[in-house]
Amino acid sequence: MNNPIKIAVDAMGGENSPEKVINGIHIHNNNIKDIFYNIFGDQNILDPLIKKIKLPENKYKIIHTTNKIEDNDSPLSAAKRGRDTSMWMSIESVKNNHSDAIVSAGNTGALFVIAKLNLKMIENIDKPALSALWPNKSGMNIVLDLGANIECNEKNLIDFSLMGSALHKSLFDNEDAKVALLNIGSEEIKGNNIIKNTYQELNKKKNSLFEFKGYIEGNQIMDGDVNVIVTDGFTGNIALKTAEGTANFITSELKNAFNKSLLGKLSALINIKNLKMFKNKLDPRLYNGAILLGLDKPVIKSHGSTDEIGFANSLNVCEKIIKGDLIDKIKKNII
Amino acid sequence: MNNPIKIAVDAMGGENSPEKVINGIHIHNNNIKDIFYNIFGDQNILDPLIKKIKLPENKYKIIHTTNKIEDNDSPLSAAKRGRDTSMWMSIESVKNNHSDAIVSAGNTGALFVIAKLNLKMIENIDKPALSALWPNKSGMNIVLDLGANIECNEKNLIDFSLMGSALHKSLFDNEDAKVALLNIGSEEIKGNNIIKNTYQELNKKKNSLFEFKGYIEGNQIMDGDVNVIVTDGFTGNIALKTAEGTANFITSELKNAFNKSLLGKLSALINIKNLKMFKNKLDPRLYNGAILLGLDKPVIKSHGSTDEIGFANSLNVCEKIIKGDLIDKIKKNII
Question: What are phi and psi of A305, to 5 degrees?
């Protein structure tokens, strides 16, 4: 680990970048004092933005490049022509131990492929997984895989249980990790053979990192009884996006209901503090982004469409992962 | 088809049955005049309930049995010992053409197995599918399969497209059926081989029943651009239940927000009409239950936990399916 901790920031990826990235650094730096930012991107654009937020000179370094990965680049073409882009160079920076973690709001597929090309897998982990935070009634879930692996075998799902638990422990130090397999019923006989075999294996293996709680169904994800939810990348991606779509549908219907009458608008005004609390609890910026697990360096993907607050939260996740020794936790517990 | 249309009603399944079933018939009969109900259950319990709702004698017949399938019966034990239960006898009633459709709020697995044991598959359909209504911005989706088949091949998914479209046309006569495959990306290269092959097949096949619109992702289910959403039973079950869980989570958080202060409670009162409209639009009783497709008779599953309004809506679905010639529509269009 570098001292101070260094985060490699791809400043050029995602909507409204690099403005939101630099403003995100501003918010993060105001809250957390012991971080150094290696910022990758076009110096001519970055310099005036950084001047504006008055980031102290000893807190950052710009590594200049005019090239960047575009959102519509295919992962393959990004990998082929990407070597001097801000994304590639920021990943290289963790590879060479110049930074401790990398964050980008750019093209997910490209980030995934370039990270896999440059970084080593943790020994005995077969496949990396994409994980994310997902709120529940009592705190936060880690859910994985969210699309990196369409098909997973028993070993993959067991690895995901372990990596997800290590991530949960890094982010929420004083909570116990409780793992569940996402399935279509809670009885032991439900699901396909891979899930059933994984259940048996996890039930047998005792370990100090997590407690295995069996199956949960889709409607139990947010109950808060477990906090690490393991599934294959196809199912996880569909579940996460379905939840997103449902949340958007409900909040837009709710807005319509309030806007239907003057009285409605008025009472929404009266109620503004309560509605704000409601919105805050569900604010997707609070659990913005995804974490790529299984590589020997932390790779954090911020949502392309998030804003500066969302990006600041991704920086927060980087910092917690480094301080929480995520990679070490995985290495020590891998079976 | 019987004249008048006859619906076989398993009166003994689900929570608060047979009360909610009989009250559901009451609501349904008040709105739709040309239906006859074959009611299966314990005459001693049913008689006083029916007397209470003053259902005219020429609108129903009680077929007496004291046996019933319990919620915790395994499908296998239900099939073994079920012959003189209200569920089995009501399915037999459609088998023998004494009724045109069957509805039950009882044990889903048992209903599924007993229906498969007693009823024929529609020719050229390999697997039956469980489908349900799911609201979107502009109307209603049909989503299938929701758990009957954990693994599906190309032929199954094509059959589901066709059966789902026939169901949509039966229920919403003046709308065009627009089919999409649920996937983890909208590009042609995404997904596993079965999904990709199905995409190619559906793209080639022109038919008069539906338009094929390609892939959608989980967050697009409620957009209203398509209305028949096809997936395997594992993914469909997880997606539906995740949406349910998310909706419950958000509405309970919203309730908390409103209840936080006196002012909040007051403004909720002021806003009661708007909130009611909001609630109505999302009322799960409006799209209560599931429809088993692929058998040569309509089998409708009402939610076990629904109330009389939900059950009345299931009767409504029965009636529309019969009048809309669902089974004929499937038979004529099967490839």
Answer: -95, 5
Out of B116-120, B231-235, B273-277, B328-332, which region has the weakest mean confidence (pLDDT)? B273-277
Residue contact B274–A251, C-beta within 8 A = no
Contact list in A for residue B260 (CB cut-off 8 A) is 274, 277
| Residues sharing a CB contact under 8 Å with residue A272, sequence separation 6 or more, in sequence order | none
* Minimum CA–CA partner of A277 in chain B: B257
- Structural domains of chain A, ranges and CATH numbers in brackets: 1-121+295-324 (3.40.718.10), 126-293 (3.40.718.10)
> Which residue, A33, A5, A4, A2, is CA-closest to A318?
A5
- Interval B152-175: pLDDT, tens: 999 999 999 999 999 999 999 889
pLDDT at A222: 93
| Burial class of residue B91 (count of CB atoms within 10 Å of its CB; 0-12, 13-18, 19+) | buried
Nearest to B242 among A219, A264, A281 (CB): A219
ipTM of the complex: 0.88
Task: Please report residues of A whose CB lies closer than 8 A to that of B191.
Answer: 150, 234
Q: Residue B317: what are its φ and ψ, rounded to 5°?
A: -60, -45
User: Which amino acid is it at A269?
Assistant: L
Residue A63: strand pairing partners: A40
> CB-CB: which of A221, A233, A253 is closest to B282?
A253
Average pLDDT rounded to a whole number, residues A319-328: 95
DSSP string, A88-156: HHHHHHHHTTS-SEEEE-S-HHHHHHHHHHHSPBPTT--S-EEEEEEEETTEEEEEE-SSS-SS--HHH
pLDDT surpasses 60 at B270: no
Average pLDDT over residues B22-30: 97
* CA-based nearest residue in chain B for residue A260: B274
Count CB pairs under 8 A between chains A and B: 171
Residue contact B264–A242, C-beta within 8 A: no
The pair of three-digit structure tokens given for residue B120, joined into one six-digit string? 């024929």
How many percent of chain B have pLDDT more than 70? 90
Tokens standing for B165? Answer: 């479209």
Q: Which residues of B touch A135 (CB under 8 A)?
A: 249
Chain A residues within an 8 Å CB radius of B248: 219, 222
How is the beta sheet containing A228-230 ordered, strand by strand? A60-64, A35-41, A5-10, A101-104, A299-301, A290-293, A129-136, A139-144, A228-230, A177-182, A210-216
SS3 B63: strand
Residues of B in contact with A221 (CB under 8 A): 242, 245
Residue A130 CB contacts under 8 Å (≥ 6 apart), including other chains: A112, A144, A145, A146, A147, A148, A233, A290, A291, A292, A293, A301
Question: Contact, A105 vs A290, CB < 8 A?
Answer: no
